[in-house]
Amino acid sequence: MTAAVGNPTPLRDAAAKVTGRALYAGDYSFPALLHVKFLRSPHAHAEIRGLDIAAARQAPGVRAIAVGRDLPVTFGILPIRPDETAMAVDKVRYIGEIVAAVAAETAEAAAAAARLIRVEYRPLRAFLEPAAALAPCPPEERIHAASRHPSNLHKEARLRFGDPEAALAGSPLRVAAHFRFAGVTHAFTEPHATVAVWNADDTLTVISATQVPHYLHRTLAKVLGLPLHRIQVKKPALGGGFGGKSDPFPHELITAYLALRTHRPVKCVFTREEVFLNNRGRHPTEMDLALGCDRDGKLTGLFADIVIDGGAYSSFGVVTTYYNGVLMQGPYRIEPFGFRARRVYTNKPPCGAMRGHGAVNPRYAVEVALDMLAQEAGLDPCELRERNVLPADTLTVGQLRITSNGVRECLRAVRARSGWDARHGKLPYGRGLGVACGFFISGSALPILWNRYPQTVVHVKLDFDGRVVVFSGAADIGQGSDTILALVAAEILGLPLERVQVESADTRLTPVDLGSYSSRVTFMAGNACRSAAEKLRQAIAAAVAAEKGVAAAAIVFRDGQLVTADGQRLASWDEAVEIALAGRGAFVESGHYTSPKMGGDFKGAGAGLSPAYSFGAVVSEVAVDPVTGRVRVVKVWGAHDCGRALNPLAVEGQMQGSIHMGLGQALSEELVYQEGRIVNASFADYHIPTAVDTPEMDVTIVESRDREGPFGAKEAGEGPIHPVLPAIGNAIFDAVGVRLFELPMTPARVLAKLREQERRRG
Amino acid sequence: MAEAAYVVAGSLEEALALAETHSGHYAFAAGGTDLQLRRQQELEAAPLIIDLSGIGDLGGVRAGRHRLEIGALTTLAELATSAAVRRWCPMIAEAAASIGTPVLRMTATAGGNLLVANRCTWYNQSAAWRGAAGTCLRNSGDTCLVTGGCGQCYSRAVSDLAPALIALQARVVLRDAHATREAALEDLYLADGLHPQAQPGKDAILTALRLAHRPERWCYRKLRRRDSVDYTSLTVAGARDADGGVRVCIGGVSMSPILVSAGPGDANLPALTAEARRKCKTVDNDLLPLSYRRNMIDVFLEELWRELGENGHERRTGRVP
Ligand SMILES: Cc1cc2nc3c(=O)[nH]c(=O)nc-3n(C[C@H](O)[C@H](O)[C@H](O)COP(=O)(O)OP(=O)(O)OC[C@H]3O[C@@H](n4cnc5c(N)ncnc54)[C@H](O)[C@@H]3O)c2cc1C
Ligand code: SF4
Is A679 in Cβ contact with B320 (below 8 Å)? Predict the structure, then answer.
């Protein structure tokens, strides 16, 4: 039998993307298309006292100009206290915030006209660092005057289980450190782009590079004041998101608004600099962390105090704040456990969700602290971890429900494959090995918006042509979700993959899926697709059973045939389709997924809840040049428990991509600001590792077969990144004996640590 | 980006005549990889682009027994792979291979590289960025945003070929509508960020590079975050003759490439380092921290000294560990 699931399968859109045939949002064109360009704020924080668009309106080619007051309705990805507007209304809150937009016959004309707009600003005190922003200040100075806090604090999350401070004070061994993490951003290939068309039937079509067509749909309705049923959002081919396209954005709303106002198609394509200004990347973070263990290496408690720099708006910030704390409670048994996490508004481009959302920085801190404890306890770092990992089918201290758990297998795999036991601590000076583990959610169990709908619905359609079409709102953002849905349907129906086609992410055609964030699509849409395909199989089986006089339950679908259990052929697929459609024609079956109820009943218990968790481990080998401080990662061994690899090729790709992305944050990527301006808003200056900087990778897939995942699957898109960064930090310690508490671990920082070490040793 | 007329010159004479006619209001383009970026960032607004890339006789490497001539339009990819260049001195190929990316090197030229504009993190930004930061000396403003001073611009000379070729005593051939002349490469550079480019002379075209001197040993080191794409944060190139004479040239840390040399017999590391420190006007206008870059000048010079010494490796390249 040719199984679909488990077969390494090239992504469905791969050939189109690499040959240039794929159509991205920016590739769409329509007759009489207008182009939008924006005027952006040169001030980090300023009141808008006057706005004069007279000259711009007269400029050649200009058809419409939009300003803040045209679209004053606030929005945000989270329903709690939406604080964004499409354009700045009364004041600007970061350098680069959109103040006005011009739609003109050409992009050049729009850009030229935007420069003619005169804005009178009254600069306000700018808060550029969290420490200053956290100090109490009068409401009129605050970035958001309506804030409930006496400062620029956006969100404070605290959870405690037991008394971690007391446990740590009494712990035989205890380490504490202050960690600093620079802000990083997604750096996807395709810049943001949106095309909006006002149709002849008074409906709006928005084609946009988005991970969340559903939330964009809702936000367009809210901000434009249009009924939901007159809006269609389509996500075309997409060139990477990593969380950077998972908010509804100002430019999408403005572009749609201008189409509505001009009744002409309007297009917006960002420059790379604008992509950086839009940001929503990982929060710059400061963290104090203390972790203890007893002499046998059993963990005795953890406490962390975390401040994350949110930038000017809330975005996913409340979730990020919680994730920074709650996602430290695995993959080890840590009790007692507590944290305080605070997100602060600053006058910088907003931060948001980025691959590994909220958990990457705290994971670094925990895994480095574990390494320090191992050293104090005189234990091998792998051994210390093995003594503490959570088992399968358990609850964490904060009542996260763990089902399948392959962390031990992951750890053992990288330990064996890297030759850890023979090499760790034994390599010559300058060379070292480091290890770390991680875990992550397979979809947030709680939807962003509370309502009675499922989290995802999938339709499968069968018609006379014998093809099966899967309809899903899920956004394939390059992670391969269309391919996964096809694999799932093909597996259930025993069909060759080419018989299954996928229509996705079109809010007029496809049922709602909440979007591609929190690593939810394979698990949730995969389950919904499985259920829909199973119903289709039952319907076909029932019809064929009646016609052939066999029991429906005894019919097996395989290799494009329907056969009996003993292999006797009943019908070809095409014959079966004809039988099933007789007298009624094409039909659709529907499946859906809703997370089971779980979690504790304390405030914040929902944060980090997921129907399943992925697990992983990484060993990395580094070479450190003690003279220049430069770190080269020589090789990375990664293992990831994704439950079951429905498409092993895609899982390996996600693991390799995660290693590469983690390497960037670990060693070279950072958003550099000067007085609120991003200094390195280009791919020449934002240092993503290039092919020559990327090490050899050895990836191992561990399959723990989750009982609730589709065919046992969990996530693989985000979890593999978490262990990468600390494995590098820990390897540097093995190589040269210094601990890096600040990321990225640039040559200058490594060298400063080495000099400090020299001074200490005299 | 400002609109510009664009002419592909069919011959050197045509290009020179055009230049003279439009003096002060044009820019030459060879590979265009530097020029086009500056145009995009609105740092260059010449209303006429004279494209030199169609001029047939400005390309190619010509090797003789005692001299090597490199046409100005020779691409960096050609330089990096040319057997004749490697035979003459692998340092030239190493330097070329360290520039930009493979795609960039297929377009970028040797001449364009020597004449690449100086860089500064406060200057090489979009018009909107500079609008928000305020204009600096180099950009019609009246103070330097790095130092706060009002006299001097410290933008960095970033050509990677320049240090290598200066260490190798290269000379350049310059032609204008009236004459052809030759000059030492180092004489093209002014230690002044406000003339932030090597000066081939008014309306002159750099047509070729000439090398007549082969050292016994060489060493080339480049400091950057990544092993590809990045402009240099510090480039050190050195050559030692059989008689012990040493020429070292340092790029990326001052307004022009900095040449420090010592005759046979009196070359020593402390003197070289002291001279380099004195001559390099390094300020905080690169993404790598200032103290680190200063520190690395010493470190690289020390390494270079070792490499150029008796026990050095003749084929040592700029790579780290
Ligand atoms: C991403 C990126 C990375 C880069 N990395 C590096 C690097 O690592 N090291 C480095 O040195 N450079 C680097 N550069 C800068 C630049 O691309 C190279 O220096 C390149 O060699 C310039 O050559 P070109 O032929 O493209 O020059 P052009 O852009 O055509 O010209 C550069 C300047 O020289 C003038 N010019 C060109 N040819 C002549 C001539 N024959 N006579 C008179 N004037 C002339 C032009 O008018 C222009 O002012 C990088 C550029 C980019 C975009
Ligand atoms: S060094 Fe100073 S004057 Fe020169 S470009 Fe930079 S900021 Fe401007």
Answer: no
Do B179 and B298 lie in a common domain? Answer: yes
Residues in contact with A539: Cβ distance below 8 Å, sequence separation at least 6, in sequence order: A580, A587, A589
Instruction: Tell me which of B144, B147, B287 to substitute to probe ligand 2's pocket, judged by most ligand atoms within 8 Å of the beta carbon.
Output: B144
Q: Specify the pTM.
A: 0.97
**How big, in percent rounded to 5, are the helix, strand and coil portions of chain A?**
30, 25, 45
Question: Residues B203-215: pLDDT tens digits?
Answer: 999 999 999 999 9
Separation of alpha carbons A667 and A257, rounded Å: 42
- Check if the beta carbon of residue B32 is closer than 8 Å to that of residue B74: no
Range of the domain at B239: 61-114+156-311
Shared domain check, B165 and B43: no
Does domain A447-593 sit in CATH 3.30.365.10? yes
Judge: domain A17-124+189-240+245-278, CATH 3.90.1170.50.
yes
HSE of A227, CA atoms in CB hemisphere, 13 A: 4
Our measurement of the distance from residue A31's CA atom to the centroid of its chain's CA atoms, rounded to an integer in Å, reads: 35
B123 → chain A, closest CA residue: A679
Q: What is the mean pLDDT of residues A609-627?
A: 98
Same domain, B288 and B197: yes
Q: For ligand 1, is residue B31 a contact (CB within 6 Å)?
A: yes
pLDDT attached to residue B312: 59
Nearest to A527 by CA among A580, A597, A474: A474
Query: What is the amino acid identity at position A141?
Result: E
Q: Given a cut of 50, is residue A470 above it in pLDDT?
A: yes
* Structural domains counted in chain B: 2
* HSE-up (13 A, CA, CB side) for residue A544: 26
CA atoms of A380 and A425, how far apart (whole Å): 9
Q: For residue A147, what pLDDT is reported?
A: 81
Q: What are phi and psi of A516, to 5 degrees?
A: -95, 85
- CATH code, domain carrying B27: 3.30.43.10
- Looking at residue A25, its amino acid is A
Contact A555, A570 (CB under 8 A): yes
By mean pLDDT, which of A280-294, A668-682, B138-152 is the weakest?
B138-152
Q: Residue B206 gets which letter from DSSP?
A: E
DSSP string, A407-423: HHHHHHHHHHHTTHHHH
Residue B153: CB within 6 Å of ligand 2? Answer: yes
Kindly tell me if the per-residue pLDDT of B317 is higher than 80: no
Q: Is B316 within a domain?
A: no
Alpha-carbon gap, residue A84 to A650, rounded angstroms: 36
Q: Is B255 in the pocket of ligand 2 (CB under 6 A)?
A: no
Do B187 and B257 lie in a common domain?
A: yes
Distance CA A478, CA A17 (A): 10
The per-residue DSSP string of A37-78 comes to EEEE-S-SSEEEEEEE-HHHHHSTTEEEEEEGGGS---B-SS
Verify whether the Cβ–Cβ distance A625 to B288 is below 8 Å: no
CATH code, domain carrying B205: 3.30.465.10
In a domain, B297, yes or no: yes
Q: Which of B36, B53, B70 is the last residue of a domain?
A: B53
What is the spatial distance between Cα A384 and Cα B236, in angstroms, rounded to a whole number?
Answer: 46
Neighbours of A556 (CB within 10 A): 17
For chain A, the C-alpha Rg in angstroms (whole number) is 27
Domain assignment present for B126: no
CATH class entry, domain A355-440+608-761: alpha beta
CB contact under 8 A, A628 and B133: no
Rounded Cα distance, B197 and B189, in Å: 7
DSSP H or E run through B129:
helix B127-133
Closest atom of ligand 1 to CA, residue B58: 41
At A308, the amino acid letter reads I
Residues B170 and B209 in one domain: yes
Among residues A566, A483, A494, A548, which one has the least CA distance to residue A521?
A: A483
